[in-house]
Amino acid sequence: MKTRKFIFPVLAAMIAVGAAFATSEKATGKSKPVLATFNVDSEDATSYHVTSVQDPDCGNGNDVTCKISSTATPDANNRILKTQATATDWRSAD
C-alpha cells in the first residue's frame, strides 16, 4: 500500500509537468516571418539600401528599383540582400 501512496502522486506530478511543457512549447513556438515593404534609396550588385522616405517618382518607370518586399530585416547599414528580397516597383533612372 505504501508503494501506491508514493507512485500515484509522483505520476500525477509528472503528468502535470509534462502538460505544462507541452502548453508552453506551443505558446513560445517560432512565429511565421512577416512580409514587409521597404523603400529603396540605392542598390549595388548584392544589396538594396532601404530608407523610410518614399521616392515621389516610384512607380513611374522601370529602370531602377524603388520598392521591395522581404521577410528579412535591414542590417546595421540599412541594407537587405537582393537574394532575400523581391523588387515590387521601379522608377526611371535619374
Features:
5 strands, signal, 94 residues, alpha+beta, DUF6520, 32% strand, 5-stranded antiparallel sheet, 2 domains, DUF4333 domain-containing protein, single chain, 28% helix, rod-shaped
Q: Helix content range of the residues, please? A: 25-40%
Total domain modules: 2
Mean pLDDT: 84
Uncertain ranges: none
Element order, helices and strands? HEEEEE
Could you give the distance between the termini?
A: 89 Å
Pfam families: DUF6520 (PF20130)
Protein name: DUF4333 domain-containing protein
InterPro entries: DUF6520 (IPR045391)
Keywords: Signal
Written description of the protein model:
There is one protein chain. The protein is α+β, with helices and mostly antiparallel strands and 94 residues long. The protein folds into two domains: 1-30; 36-91, no CATH class. Helix content is 28%, strand content 32%. The protein has a five-stranded antiparallel β-sheet, with no helix packed on it. A hairpin with a 3-residue loop joins strand 1 and strand 2 (47-51). The longest helix is centred in the N-terminal third of the chain and has 26 residues, at 2-27.
Can I get a quick summary?
The chain is of the alpha+beta class and 94 residues long. It has 1 helix and 5 strands. It has 2 domains: 1-30; 36-91, no CATH class.
